[in-house]
Specification:
The complex is a heterodimer of chains A (478) and B (476).
Chain A: H1 8-16, H2 22-40, E1 43-46, H3 48-63, E2 75-79, H4 106-113, E3 117-122, H5 156-163, E4 169-174, H6 180-186, E5 189-192, E6 212-217, H7 220-230, E7 260-264, H8 274-289, E8 293-297, H9 302-320, H10 338-349, H11 352-365, H12 370-394, E9 397-401, H13 417-422, H14 428-433, E10 437-444, E11 450-457, H15 462-477
Chain B: E1 5-16, H1 55-67, E2 71-72, E3 75-76, E4 79-82, E5 92-95, E6 102-111, E7 114-127, E8 131-135, E9 140-144, E10 151-157, H2 164-181, E11 193-203, E12 213-216, H3 221-240, E13 248-253, E14 258-264, E15 274-275, E16 282-283, H4 286-294, H5 300-310, H6 315-322, H7 325-336, H8 341-359, H9 370-381, H10 387-400, H11 404-411, H12 419-432, H13 434-441, H14 447-458, H15 465-475
Parallel strand pairs in B: 12-13
Antiparallel strand pairs in B: 1-10, 1-11, 2-6, 3-16, 4-5, 4-15, 6-7, 7-10, 8-9, 11-12, 13-14
Amino acid sequence: MELLDLSAVELGTAIREGKTTAVEAMEAVLAQIEQKESLYHCYVRVDREGALDRARAVQKKIDEKELSGPLAGVPVAVKDNLCTQGMATTCASRMLENFVPAYSAEAVRRLESAGAVLIGKTNMDEFAMGSTTETSAYGVTRNPRDPQYVPGGSSGGSAAAVAAKECFFALGSDTGGSIRQPASFCGVVGMKPTYGTVSRYGLVAYASSLDQIGPLCKTVEDCAVILEAIASHDEKDSTSLQRTDTDFTAGLVQDVEGMRIGIPRDYFGEGLDGEVREAVLKAAGVLKDRGAVLEEFDLSLVDYAIPTYYTIAAAEASSNLERFDGIKYGYRAQAQELHQMYKTTRSQGFGPEVKRRIMLGSFVLSSGYYDAYYLKALKVKAMIKGAFDRAFEKYDCILGPAAPATAPRLGESLADPLKMYLGDIYTVSANLAGLPGICIPCGTDSRGLPIGLQLLGDCFQEKKLIRAAYTYEQSCRE
Amino acid sequence: MSKEYETVIGLEVHVELATATKIFCGCSTAFGGRPNTHTCPVCTGMPGSLPVLNKKVLEYAVGVGLATNCEITRYCKFDRKNYFYPDNPQNYQISQLYLPICQNGWVEIDTPQGPRKIGIHEIHMEEDAGKLVHDSWEDVSLVDYNRSGVPLIEIVSQPDMRSAEEVIAYLEKLRLIIQYLGASDCKLEEGSMRADVNLSVREKGSDQLGTRTEMKNLSSFRAIARAIEGEKNRQIDLLEAGKTVVQETRRWDEAKEDSYAMRSKEDAQDYRYFPDPDLAPICISDEFLEEIRAGQPEFRTEKMKRYREEFDIPDYDIEIITASKHMADLFEASMALGAAPKKVSNWLMGETLRLLKEKGQGPEEIRFSPEHLTGLIDLTERRIINSTVAKEVFEVMFEKDIDPAGYVAEKGLGMVSDEDALLAAVKEVIEANPQSVQDYQNGKEKAIGFLVGQTMKAMKGKADPGRVNELLKELL
């Protein structure tokens, strides 16, 4: 048994059956990190000693039958914008280089009480702003499928860590595609649940109305199990929903007979790479062979998704990031006077992409522009939601690519931010409309880079997505 | 002055709500804790923390809105007001701009020209900021976040007031309503009620508003009245000199009785208000509204009416007693203990007001309990102490809320009921004062007063003067 090749659920089973232990699993992961990390740099922090201590403590509980869940003893990596008690949480920013939270994010806390063992914190775009993990203040992460390429972002470290077997699964956050796009680029499974399904408490906010936490993992089964573990109604988060349908593993059924799948023509037009298009449509064909009913349709408003997203996300970010001022925690620049201290701290503490979005957001909220930009964006957001509502009257899910192309080379993207923003075209709508979306691997391009298939569902319809994704995944294995 | 001017005043009143916990977290709102001990990740703006609305804040805000005839906004939201300052841990204040909880209300005040309605533009909920402590010795500034997140409501009036007297009447009215609701103690001096005055002047008869200024740092009714007078005169002087009033925020300096400009409209900040995405919009249900409506207390007007029907005490007394929630509560609790209305009212109108005035205190600061007041009345009724002793005991009770019965027993202040001892004392006084006896017997009724006084003195005050009077008359 090659431990590192096991999925999270397979490892959990092996540990429960006594074929291996949480400690052995952690040692295997740490050895892999030792070997691969200098090349890939998936992590900003690996807590070796702590990880082994935690693995021993969890194994003891497993031995004493206190822990018996599917994730008990399974090593997990957590994106560095999720607070971890006693472990630095930097958002890959110089601004928070010394910030050690006194509390853990609710999602992390739930995973830990399910027996998952924290390895360390994964690299990301600074404050989750970026699509390549190149805006991190602590160096770039490389794509384990080919180190000349980016892993995607912003949860690039989490996706790469799963792909490089430097963890068994990871948590990421998705504000405009930050779980689904790196999953696509690294050839792993990633899911953003319906807004409000996972508590945002302890997630350092980028855009509060769009942020959701979700899993990055090896299989659809892992995805359902992890999501089931982290979904909760949390009184500490006013936007957290009370759901009674979070038995996501019930969706692990190989059956798409009669499932209505809509294929938006707007997602397959100009700008989509030919190889990606081919692979995604081929995947659609697999589902059709399994009995799904495919239909092309016009989703509409797709061109408006990017400007709407960047207006709302930047507006919220400009306010959310105001608390990083050098007063209470984090980086502080020396200055003679208060406002100079604010300016210097924020000028030196934030990287260029973060500053760009703060400026953009401050602009769209400023007096005289609020109605023209921010308010208009909110109206378009509602219209986009309306377009999806109409689509889901007809379809169980919507199928398309997760990104217009496979991973770009390192260093290619940041020079032209606008082009980088346009790469989010297929993912941002799910955040604007609060919808769940899953991305699973569906082949590779001629350079061997992974291509991702994205399925979008109506709010609360994660199980349909899991069913379709599981059916496709299992069909490919046969 | 060549022209006649009219002053136009609107008020922004901040009221600190009397909730046990803060508006968006579970931290205590108690005053006076050591710095940063009533704090948590939420009220110190830690990364990843999220606000959750304290429902009690909403209940109080709606209660005040209903009591001031406001429309309640059934779908309301919180907005972020963005500005950088160290006392504001997130660098935005969670407040309400676009959809405040209450709108379009009014309260009625009494003026020499008769009752007048003062419009309320809106009432909104918001969080208080922390406090900066400047340590000039160490040359540093420190922040205390204990106050950060303490709930406030801001009551914004229409520019309907025309004089300092109307402003004071309006504030008194608001204060009474809010105190009756138990939503706040509304102490200006301690900052649980703060008023900013927006003032402009215009020629009498004009329907155009003049340029206004906003006056801050007003911590007493006296300061408000003086600041209004000062600002009105300053603006009129400017206009008379052919100059213009600049729209600006001014700070009142109570010691110098003068104001100075803090910032003008030109450097006014752009707060970039937008709806707070961390807080779900609030939908007020019919049930919630009904619950608040049903739980509204008896306000002053209704209370006065009821007192007139139930208690045989003068109208003046009723006005004074109901002008303070605390005094009205004290009065009603004493009634519940079976005390006579007039007796209780006499103590409140007489000694209580006298001592409050002497100590410069307000009726909210009355410390003695209704049990002890009733106890004291009982002691006089049962002739255990006379009225002079009662006043002495009351003064101690006013200070320390002692139990009068226990105090009288402990200090031996009870009247001597031993008839023989009293008779002996009376006889001695008659013997020692033949001239007064003579006068009395010659028809000078007043002379007996002197003899009563002498007897009381001999008894060290512990005799019933009525009984002394009787004995003297018998013997003479």
